[in-house]
Amino acid sequence: MSTIEQVLPEPTHPFRWSTASWGPVLVCDALAPYAYHFFSASGLDVTGPEPSERWESVADALGVPQARVWRVRQVHGIDLTVADAQETRTGPCPEGDLLATERSDAALAVRTADCVPILLVDRQRRVVAAVHAGWRGTALGAAVHIVSLLEERYGVAASDLIAAVGPSIGPDRYVVGGEVPQAFRRRFDEDTVRRWCAEDDEGTCRLNLWQANAEQLTSAGVHSEQVHVAGMCTATHARLFHSYRVDGDRAGRMVAAIRLA
């Protein structure tokens, strides 16, 4: 057994620990034949999308120049940024929370510190996507939306997609206020909201972002056996990951990134 396996908590299959220049990263073996990718831990702290030495490290890990690492100013929505129109990204990062590309020389990256990072790859048409989904994005159906956008723009079949849901705050630690299930009720039926937002007799609600995003992906047509959830809670393992719920404004930001192989 390697040192990594001995000292780090074990993720669910097919996730495993690997190493980058800054420290441990999670990879998903289901994505690996089709895309270079990783979910970073606290060894990498990228607090903004602007160019920096840390983004240079991300670019090096994915084998592209920093200017070809596409990222966005995340606003907890469902707007898509496409990295197909030009060879390199220029100017300020656009606002949004979803990215997609069919270019093999472009990488996509989202930042998280409790929110859900989702990386997707289409096995047939060679398209990748990255999603940032906090509770607001999840309530808006970000996972459903990215599948629909990939179908419309690239002719992707949902059944050909593989999705990896990376480290985020887990249901045991994510206590939310009443406005959260109310936001979900604007889009989803009551039975669905009850599955994702478990309320006790005292009115405390615990939100299961893992289940919500996995079920959204399968409802959009991704086969359940092709949706993989790391099962790693950022708040439970706050020394290993960045967690806004634990550290507040002092929290750093992790990166989930992907590039076609």
Structural notes for this entry:
The chain is an alpha+beta fold. It has a single domain (3-169, 227-260), classed as CNF1/YfiH-like putative cysteine hydrolases. 24% of the residues lie in helices and 27% in strands. The chain is built from eight helices and 15 strands. It has helices at residues 3-7, 53-62, 135-139, 142-154, 179-185, 190-196, 209-219, 244-247; strands spanning 15-20, 23-28, 35-40, 69-70, 80-82, 98-101, 107-112, 116-122, 127-133, 161-165, 175-176, 197-199, 205-207, 227-229, 254-260. It has a six-stranded mixed beta sheet. Strands 5-6-9-8-10-14 form a six-stranded mixed beta sheet. Strands 11-13-12 form a three-stranded antiparallel beta sheet. Strand 2 (23-28) and strand 3 form a beta hairpin. Helix 4 packs parallel to helix 7. The longest helix has 13 residues, at 142-154. The chain is globular. The protein starts with a helix and ends with a strand.
Tell me the name of the CATH homologous superfamily.
Answer: CNF1/YfiH-like putative cysteine hydrolases
**Overall helicity:** 10-25%
Distance between the termini: 28 Å
The total count of strands amounts to: 15
**Architecture per CATH nomenclature, i.e. the level-2 architecture:** 4-Layer Sandwich
Oligomeric composition of the shown chains: single chain
Q: In percent terms, what proportion of residues is strand?
A: 25-35%
